Amino acid sequence: MGDWxxxxxxxxxxxxxxxxxxxxxxxxxQKLVDFCRRQKLIVTNTWxxxxxxxxxxxxxxxxxxxYQLDYIMVRERYRNSVKNSRALPGADVDSDHNLVAMxxxxxxxxxxxxxxxxxxxxxxxxxxxxxxxxxxIEEGLVEKKEATTEERWRALKEVIVKETVEEVGYxxxxxxxxxxxxxx
Length: 184
Fold this sequence. Notes:
By secondary structure, the protein is of the alpha+beta class. The protein has 3 helices and 8 strands, in the order E-H-E-E-E-E-E-E-E-H-H. The protein is rod-shaped, with a radius of gyration of 35 Å.
């Protein structure tokens, strides 16, 4: 959006300029239309029927003429989100330009993040090799007299995980549907 010093004029231009512009198109207006076509933008101020008072965005010194030079442009894809666009000539700003406002309705999508699935131990294999696993864990533990509780816990955890991965492994595929829902 901004002051483009271009007049796109009345009459629609394909799907980029609406039929409710103001005045006649000048050379800069044609360049703006070409820019909108290349970038797939629509000029929102020209799509909504407003009185001339709500169309002009600049008046010449001495109020000799009024022009539409300021525009809000939106990607063509979001055209249906724009509900209204107009100039606000009564706004108290220290400028010879009028404010241009647009009303839009945005519907944001909720995007689910794919959370990696936690790996599950193969419980069936664990039942089979349980005694062997216990023996390997005990062999892997080395008692350090000077170690803190935190260091001893970390060492125990590393040995358990390492030996369990080697002996048992992870469950392949999704968990059974009946897991946790067994009825008696």
